[in-house]
Amino acid sequence: MPEAVMELAKRLNGIAIISSDLQESDLEGTDIESVTAYIVNFFKDAPGPKILNKQMLGQIMQSHVQEAIIRTPAIQKPRPQNPIQPNFSIRNLEVRKTGAKVADFAEYFNNRLERLKSIIISGRNANFMELQKNVDSIKQLMNGREIGIIGMVYDKITTKNGHILATIEDGTGTAKVLFLKPSKESSKEQMRLFAEADRLIVDEVVGIRGRISNPFIMANALIRPDIPIKQRKRTEEDMAIAFMSDIHAGSKLFMEKQFRNFLKWINLSTKYNQETAEKVKYIVISGDLVDGIGVYPNQESELTIESIYRQYNFLFELFSEVPENIEIFMLPGNHDAMQRAEPQPSLAEEFLKDMKYKNIHMVSNPGYVTLEGIKILSYHGTSLDSVIHGIKGLSYSKPEGAMQEVLKRRHLSPVYGHNPIVPSSTDQMIMDQVPDILHMGHLHKNGSADYHGTLIVNSGTWQARTSYQIKLGHMPTPAVMPVYNTKSMELRNIDFNLMAD
């Protein structure tokens, strides 16, 4: 099989089968990543077996050419100065390191428990507070007594009869909590309770209401810290915020052509979605700015830039082309040059050197950025791996689902151990403020949703499908940038694969 056809087949693994009539000449002069994006978009809702032959490829490419002629004539138009002065603030999360002794970790978990406990027993759960006991005190109570406890999930198992048995600990002891498997006659409320119990993950903090039936507590309610229902803030001015993540500058799979399409777009040098580009005043970037060095074995073979300093040089050269009247906020991720444990501080000065621009601001991971009164909690999202693996029904194809579960738990990294956390006396990954927008990346897949008034945004990636993703069957959505209008509260995805040169 010719080289270009083989590369296309690799990119489409799990998406479509390549017909034997497809030849190298059919792909001559094309950008393989753009072609992949067109084909994936073409097949996404198609029923039955998906086979790409020569005729179909021609139809896909022709339809894109016609769309490009209609929608994206190149123009040269200087970007007008935005008359609205920027109004923003940054809250970096401090990294307060302690030792790595048992007592230090105990202090960390106690801080998590007490702070999330205070959220659970807040005003919206006043009735629960009247029943609330510590675990040790309930040992003296008689069967049938209704009680409430708040603790951390130590483990969860499914019994041979299909019930769920969870062990809850609160610092005074442990309690066995039983959630009965619903029958056909069970109420909707009982079915919902069991479904929520099935989504329990270790180390999350929950409230349990139930009746004592020694040696168990028979649960009749499960309460999470959760975020309250709120009205999302909006602005009077008609402006927009663009979201990015996982640029991976320096990787062979960095989609430089599509990124330069973005630069043309943000400079108003194309009519493609120009009405949206004109309104962008802020850009928030949620980690993995560069591909890094030594992040995984044999990474050097997949790099075009093998120096970490030159990777950042290249990154800032690209962003220097963004107009100065657009404010840019950059967080690190697990591929960036710093500690792996979270919270991560903002990018170190040694990597900035002479690459300092007045409109580019470094932020911790996670970090809060407030733009025109709209509070954004931005986090790279490394913990989403453990959340997806720990909760049934979640998947990499829908990152908004895992992000919603994080909001319910009011914790950005609820499962301890899978994602390294800085040993600290204070758990900085707790959401002590409710954001208007929760922004993440890491999964290389776009997704969005509204949960209790908070907008969930995952901004995908600017890196093409990797060999590891091919092995997993994961299909990323590269070069698709979410843009949020702060006045209309509309979120749009701008696809730079579909923008003509």
Describe the structure.
Strand 7 and strand 8 (216-223) form a beta hairpin. The chain has helices at 3-11, 32-43, 54-71, 102-120, 126-131, 188-197, 256-266, 274-277, 308-319, 349-352, 384-390, 399-409, 467-472; strands at residues 17-18, 51-52, 88-92, 146-158, 164-169, 174-179, 205-213, 216-223, 240-244, 280-286, 327-331, 360-362, 367-371, 374-378, 437-440, 446-451, 454-459, 480-485, 491-495. The protein is built from 13 helices and 19 strands. The chain has 3 domains: 3-71; 102-223, Nucleic acid-binding proteins (OB fold (Dihydrolipoamide Acetyltransferase, E2P), Beta Barrel), CATH 2.40.50; 229-495, Purple Acid Phosphatase, chain A, domain 2 (4-Layer Sandwich). The model is unreliable at 65-77 (pLDDT under 50). Helix content is 26%, strand content 22%. The strands form 4 sheets. Strands 3-13-14-15-17-16 form a 6-stranded mixed β-sheet, covered by helices on one side. With 501 residues, it is α/β, with parallel strands linked by helices. The longest helix has 19 residues, at 102-120. Helix 1 (3-11) packs across helix 2.
